[in-house]
Amino acid sequence: MRGAREVTAFALLPVVLLAIVFLPPWVYLAMVWVIAMFSAWELLALFRRLGQPAPQAPTLVTLGALLPALWLGGLPRAGAVLALALLVVPIAYLLGRYPIQGAAAGIAGATFTVVYFVVTGGAMGFLRTLFPGTMGVKVLLFHCLLIWGGDSGAYYVGSRFGRHKLAPVVSPKKSWEGIAGGVLGTFFGLWFCRTLFFPELPLPLGLAIATALSVLAPVGDLVESLFKRDAGVKDSSDLLPGHGGFLDRSDSLFFAAPFVLALFILFGLFGAPV
Hints:
Layout: H1 2-22, H2 25-49, H3 56-73, H4 78-95, H5 103-129, H6 135-161, E1 165-167, E2 171-175, H7 176-196, H8 203-231, H9 246-267
Antiparallel strand pairs: 1-2
């Protein structure tokens, strides 16, 4: 499986980098939209394995419409988009005449799915589009490279030296040694980005984000593992050989994105949104 993991990564990485760096922003947003939709479909499948009648089609249609609406409206209209995310799914469940038995669990699961991916997928889009000029490319690359560096460090250090389990019930393969490797990989990513293409990033902000990602990335992974363990599956799907599904690969990136976006905005270093 390790060979399949590397082959898939090397096949997808150029596509992702091309969309981030060289193609128009709408291409990247379309890629985030596709990933969010596949991830949401996988999460709904996990809910349905648990017997929760989460309505698939209305949920995916709602998410598919609200993500572009959020990006087009920008942060000032985010509250209205989130309000729609909370209200549309229950209405769709009622009008669709879905089973009354289990309605609360089905609506809760579907609503969570929409809100979660509107918030996290929306933040992934804003990391690219909210900053002027080429700054958005740098901010997004910084976020992705730190996450990927931490993920790689955790995977290879943990698989080689892991002895002390981090969360044996939720995620048996994760270890404290892997966490240490992830921290090293994350801070190496900080040094790499500031050295190679992001020298204007203030060191205090960079250290704050690297510290936050050292915690948030594994937490995002563990949150997704909760759903998988509850459903009794190892991976969210088998769409990505060696990696599982889109939800398995997007968990840390998406989960941490709102926090990283908030830190950049709170530091207020790169001008007004465009």
